């Protein structure tokens, strides 16, 4: 060891490794923690009873009939998971150009909400507000004569859908459609109809991402969408400052919580939103991120538990309050046996 000619000291002036030398110290100084309180489990809902279907591009994820979803809610609540979000897999014959199935009180999402809330009242149920599971073309909105996703007529449909979710007992409605003005329209309708307690989780910064592929397989909208894309309404992946404008608008329109989606490629956006607004900020680790990690786990190239925990901790460090992740149930189990 050389001595510093000025100070005469024979050691590094600071040793960050002191705080890393044993697990007890690492635990004491750790800045961020992942807790079961942060987890939201997405589930895919199908018709029928006592039925599940595997989703090939999402190993370990199953579509579930409503009775199974309600049983799953009980399991998740038992693990301490506070919330789940529902994605209905609409049969093709229920899809239409006007997406009317989206606000059918007997629709899959509406029935699933009622089943969960009657069996596990403490489970917060989040519903997705967007038309893609219900349109024949797989777009999130309604088309005009030119085939363009028309903003303002779509708003009326989204309002009907959100209202029907609130009526069914959804705790939180989550518009994921990216139409302009939808949060204001939904908030006004909920207030007018006596649902002032229904929270809005706005997918405020939702990018036109290639990472949604497995989800579209899971809900069966991929075939409908075909070679179409959602770039006239979902955000351009090159933009960061625009996310702040989107979040600002959604908050001004009455959103209670905002979400950034996808997750891992957009951690910078989570951080910027957290610092700029400091409001409840959620992250969505999307289907493609789940598929990608699982592919590596299956190959034996990455270690499952360690990588999942590290990826989710990354969301917390970036500034996320809660995380929608298909790993939620599994992670809750790991957190319990730590
Ligand atoms: C529907 C919706 C999508 C996702 C959540 N809600 C797909 C899309 O916008 O095409 C994607 C979730 C995921 O990939 O896990 N509007």
TrEMBL record:
SMART domains: ALAD (SM01004). It is an enzyme of class 4 (lyase). GO terms for molecular function: porphobilinogen synthase activity. Its EC number is 4.2.1.24. It comes from the Bacteria. It holds the Pfam family ALAD. Keywords: Heme biosynthesis, Lyase, Porphyrin biosynthesis. InterPro entries: ALAD, ALAD_AS, Aldolase_TIM. Coiled coil: none annotated. Pathway: Porphyrin-containing compound metabolism; protoporphyrin-IX biosynthesis; coproporphyrinogen-III from 5-aminolevulinate: step 1/4. Homooctamer. Belongs to the ALAD family. This is Delta-aminolevulinic acid dehydratase.
